[in-house]
Specification:
By secondary structure, the protein is α/β, with parallel strands linked by helices. Helix content is 40%, strand content 14%. Pyridoxal-5'-phosphate binds next to helix 3.
Length: 377
């Protein structure tokens, strides 16, 4: 086997593309002007930010004026949820989300609960899908926000966002979706989906870490979280991270250009992996939805095999994967997502996630399956 790492953890993060680095370089070196400055060095930075805003907007069918740059998915989720809660607290204090959201959403909601808001955490079926009837029955007169992720980061299940968007609109409720895992893997049009707020993070689609965006539909009000300057029309104070914003614009532009072929390749690698594992390790089984799942996501249970030790053994063989369970990151708490789809504590400690990316090939799949067979035998 060649001496490279077989990286199968693209849901965690991706490497920045060369074209993206090239686009960022001038803003890390000679084009260092503060975008708020009036002289030409500053104006050039401002222009670069506005170009990136255009690129991000057109990737999701939004208007340029509806894109706000942030420090990433976590901040976008927090700004959306807390920003709406604080703005509309006199209208109502009820929020609906799901049990399988990313911690950026769940913990933002938990914080709001401490501040007197009431949050309903929708359950999901065994495939990780939100139940539409339960959503409808949970909506109340005082519901101000629904926040449901587009696709889950652990099990890859894609939610019926269009249907939820329609319900939210009919009931006059603001709808936020965390699209961090979906951008670059699924086509997204904010008009068609009827979402009001949408979170983006660049490092999931071959852009830099520490930069993201929040789409805020025109007419949707939020209270800003940071007090400071008037950047991002006062909604997100702080001198802009120009090189990273430029990188995100380029990365999203490339992702959209390549979306169809990328999806096709990811689906192929995903489906081959699932098929080969099921064939060669018959006691293994798949978590998440069989069809409505992210193109590059495989999440499987290997009964009686502890995920953490499998990760270390795979690492020795040069393969980087992650666990579906938080135990790998030092906590003994099983993953809230695996718990929500009904897995026992024991089963959820035996789950591995393989998330593919553009440098992977079918050889990587074969090498992975061989390594897994060797480990579980
Ligand atoms: N939301 C989802 C679904 C994610 O997968 C992640 C990152 O793993 C985040 C939010 C947080 O994004 P960031 O790492 O940019 O803060």
């Amino acid at each position: 086997m060649e001496n490279r790492i077989i990286y199968l953890d693209h849901a965690a993060t991706t490497a920045i593309k060369d074209e993206v680095i090239k686009e960022m370089m001038p803003y890390l070196t000679e084009q260092y002007g503060n975008p708020s400055s009036l002289y030409s060095l500053g104006r050039k930075s401002k222009k670069a930010i506005e170009n990136s805003r255009n690129q991000v907007a057109s990737a999701i069918g939004a208007k340029k004026s509806e894109i706000y740059f942030t420090s990433g998915g976590t901040e976008s989720d927090n700004l959306a949820i807390k920003g709406v809660a604080k703005k509309y607290k006199n209208k109502g204090k009820h929020i609906i989300t799901s049990k399988i959201e990313h911690h950026a959403v769940i913990n933002a909601c938990k914080r709001l609960e401490k501040e007197g808001f009431e949050v309903s955490y929708l359950s999901v079926d065994k495939n990780g899908k939100v139940l539409i009837e339960e959503l409808k029955n949970t909506i109340r007169e005082d519901t101000i926000l629904i926040s449901i992720m587009m696709a889950n980061n652990e099990i890859g299940t894609i939610q019926p966002i269009k249907e939820i968007g329609k319900i939210a609109k009919e009931r006059g409720i603001i709808f936020h979706t965390d699209a961090v895992q979906a951008i670059g893997s699924l086509p997204i049009d904010v008009e068609e989906l009827e979402v009001d707020l949408l979170s983006i993070s660049a490092h999931k689609f071959y852009g830099p870490k520490g930069v993201g965006a929040l789409y805020i539909r025109k007419g949707t009000s939020i209270e800003e979280l940071l007090d400071g300057g008037a950047q991002e029309k006062g909604r997100r104070a702080g001198t802009e991270n120009v090189p990273s914003i430029v990188g995100m614009g380029k990365a999203i532009e490339i992702a959209i250009q390549n979306l169809k072929s990328y999806q096709k390749k990811m689906c192929y690698l995903r489906d081959e992996t699932i098929e080969q594992i099921l064939k060669q390790i018959p006691k293994a089984y798949l978590n998440g939805h069989a069809i409505d799942r992210l193109p590059g996501n495989v999440n499987m249970i290997f009964p009686f095999m502890e995920a953490e030790s499998m990760i270390l053994k795979l690492d020795q063989k040069g393969i980087a994967v992650s666990s579906g369970s938080a135990c790998a990151s030092g906590s003994l708490e099983p993953s809230h997502v695996l718990k929500a789809i009904g897995l026992s504590h024991e089963a959820s400690q035996c789950s591995l996630r393989f998330s593919f990316g553009e440098e992977n090939t079918i050889n990587d799949v074969e090498y992975l399956v061989e390594a897994l067979v060797d480990i579980v035998k």
